[in-house]
Amino acid sequence: MQELVLITGGAGFIGSHVADTLLAAGYRVRALDNLHPQVHGPERTRPAYLSCDVDLVVGDVRDRDAVQRALRGVTSVIHLAAIVGVGQSMYEVAEYTSVNSLGTAVLLQALTEKRVRRLIVASSMSVYGEGLYTRRDGSAVADASRTLEQLKAGEWETRDESGEVLAPIPTTEWKPPALESVYALSKYDQERLALIIGRAYGIPTVALRFFNVYGPRQALSNPYTGVLAIFASRLLNGQRPVLFEDGLQRRDFVSVYDVARACKLALESPRGGDGVFNVGSGEPQTIRQIASRIARAVGREDLAPEVTGKYRMGDVRHCFADVRLARAALDYAPEVSFEQGMTELAQWLEGQVAKDRVPDARAELDARGLTL
Q1: Which residue among the candidates 183, 214, 224, 311 is catalytic per the annotation?
Q2: pTM (two decimals)
Q3: 4-367: in CATH 3.40.50.300
């Protein structure tokens, strides 16, 4: 009989692509998803893009009964269920902690009674805080951070003890966590809880630290989703993308197809039994570059980005992936170039309708003093 895999959050952007990848490989797939209105709209109906071959269980990962129903007959679990958003997490503290941390605990409690062959958990690059840097002499700096005084003065780059600007380098898994937001803390909770329980109960467990995932099916009306989707939503509504700081922050953008393939590799690889792995492209790009490229892709180069010169609490300056460990242990290597990914995203965006909720999100942050 074909192996049945449960994907929590399986009706969402990443989850639906993981489902497609597993179905194509011959797995059976079940999804547990609460169809949250921030992602799926107020109707909370099964998304049209979700394969009809996916057995959808509508329920909350914090609901013990729903989790147990979803686990019936399951042999492996890919845990993606989470609320996503650095900024929103700083004022929806209880909700982010409840869904991400408590929800993971409820799932793991169930797995202590019904053990599975393998557990994959989605973590995030946000657990790193700032990425890795080097000083002028080439020595690594793993604990770079910026003071509030520096940020208030609009001095955006990280510096060493003598005031010299540090140079960002690819971030490796050995870098200690630096949890700058409630979201980051909750994602670290998810990966640590999963690895602790997996080790204790003999369940091989892999935590995948996703960098900035983009592609078709992103929730365009969710102002806390990936930055590419937020920029696309603004542009589709004839509005300029909004950039914090000076827009020269560097990030790592990885196609959802590469992420879905990484999940499958983690599920199958005999060498990736227990561990934490970066899943990114390894190619840093500035946020300003990203805004220009998405504008060009959708034919709105006339809408130059608005550079606010403001800092948003929880943000970091530079962070991009070193993927050598995932390559060695999981045979993972990014296959979709950014140019390919942008072309496909632009094609998908044609005809899409998005409600621009960015002004509301900015107002929420400003009202709470979460921007400087």
Answers
A1: 183
A2: 0.94
A3: no
